[in-house]
């Protein structure tokens, strides 16, 4: 299994400042995001690819409805040609609320995602594409310089329709934070052995398990909602068990076991989302303790 790290919510210059420590940490991948109001995904990816030499750089994800697929393919092709084999392109349908804020919500999220994925794949493969669909309209569009080695495309999806689309139209699927082993296993069963499953997982590695889980609790609650915390976490013992399901947290032994469980469930890559404000400390902990322990 491969391991990566996801930098989310930081100013662009801070993301860049962590690139070289990550490149020398033994991690396989470095992922950036394109959430509304934060830094542009392709600008970040291009800079980080230029600043590093070992890690692969992923974008998780570019909202399908926001960019014209021809221009999206141009961005991906440029990075694939300049950094062969090192860019992971992630596409998703995007957050409905954000899409509405910018006036880009399509008539159908899934139609937009499927048509954009199809068009981008064909353009990256060097085809001339004409497509008059429900969302995409292209007339004899081709890339002048398609990548010599088309990069893999990964879909950031959750529900059964999105997973089914990834199974037939993409090279892999990206699962957001909060994806426990049972869900990962169900996605593996749905997409089969030929698709790469990348799992984003909250990370807090500390010598004290209780301190690690207490630090991550509010992060999980903000992301998954109070209802999750109230009804799914339940008692204190239930909360402990649930946090161990949807995070990589606790002491070294806890984290190693949680990663083993995710691998057994079918994950190919686990991308750590470190506790906000502790990114550098967690990178150091990964380099010095966790990665050496799981790669013996």
Number of helices: 12
Q: What does the largest sheet look like? A: 8 strands, parallel, barrel
What is the assembly state of the chains in this entry? single chain
Distance between the termini: 13 Å
Mean pLDDT: 93
Broad structural category: alpha/beta
Which parts are unreliable, with pLDDT below 50 for 5 consecutive residues or more?
A: 231-237
* Radius of gyration based on Cα positions: 19 Å
Write the layout of secondary structure elements.
Blueprint: E1 2-7, H1 12-23, E2 29-32, H2 41-51, E3 56-63, H3 69-82, E4 87-92, H4 96-101, H5 109-124, E5 129-132, E6 137-141, E7 153-156, H6 160-169, E8 172-175, H7 181-191, E9 196-205, H8 209-224, H9 226-233, H10 236-246, E10 247-250, H11 252-265, E11 269-274, H12 279-294
Name a few traits of the molecule.
296 residues; eight-stranded parallel β-barrel; 12 helices; alpha/beta; two-stranded antiparallel ribbon
Describe this structure in words.
- Residues about 230-235 have low confidence and may be disordered.
- This protein is α/β, with parallel strands linked by helices.
- The protein contains twelve helices and eleven strands.
- The protein has helices at about 10-25, 40-50, 70-80, 95-100, 110-125, 160-170, 180-190, 210-225, 225-235, 235-245, 250-265, 280-295, and strands spanning about 1-5, 30, 55-65, 85-90, 130, 135-140, 155, 170-175, 195-205, 245-250, 270-275.
Structure summarized in a few sentences:
The chain is of the alpha/beta class and 296 residues long.
């Amino acid at each position: 299994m491969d391991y990566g790290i996801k930098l989310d919510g930081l100013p662009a210059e801070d993301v860049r400042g962590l690139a070289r420590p990550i490149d020398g940490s033994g991690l396989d991948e470095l992922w950036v995001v394109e959430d509304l109001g934060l830094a542009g995904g392709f600008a970040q990816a291009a800079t980080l690819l230029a600043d590093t030499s070992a890690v692969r750089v992923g974008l998780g994800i570019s909202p399908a409805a926001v960019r014209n697929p021809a221009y999206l393919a141009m961005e991906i092709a440029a990075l694939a040609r300049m950094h062969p084999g090192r860019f992971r392109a992630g596409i998703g349908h995007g957050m409905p609320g954000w899409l509405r804020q910018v006036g880009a919500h399509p008539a159908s999220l899934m139609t937009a995602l499927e048509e954009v994925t199809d068009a981008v794949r064909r353009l990256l493969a060097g085809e001339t594409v004409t497509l008059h669909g429900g969302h995409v309209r292209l007339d004899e569009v081709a890339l002048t310089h398609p990548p010599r080695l088309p990069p893999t495309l990964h879909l950031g999806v959750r529900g059964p329709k999105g997973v089914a689309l990834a199974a037939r139209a993409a090279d892999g699927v990206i699962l957001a934070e909060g994806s426990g082993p049972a869900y990962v296993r169900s996605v593996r069963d749905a997409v089969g052995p030929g698709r790469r499953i990348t799992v984003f997982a909250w990370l807090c590695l500390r010598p004290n398990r209780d301190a690690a889980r207490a630090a991550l609790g509010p992060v999980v609650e903000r992301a998954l909602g109070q209802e999750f915390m109230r009804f799914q976490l339940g008692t204190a013992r239930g909360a402990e068990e649930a946090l161990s399901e949807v995070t990589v947290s606790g002491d070294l032994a806890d984290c190693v076991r949680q990663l083993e469980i995710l691998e057994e469930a079918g994950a190919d890559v686990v991308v750590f989302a470190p506790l906000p404000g502790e990114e550098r400390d967690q990178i150091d902990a990964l380099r010095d303790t966790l990665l050496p322990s799981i790669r013996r």
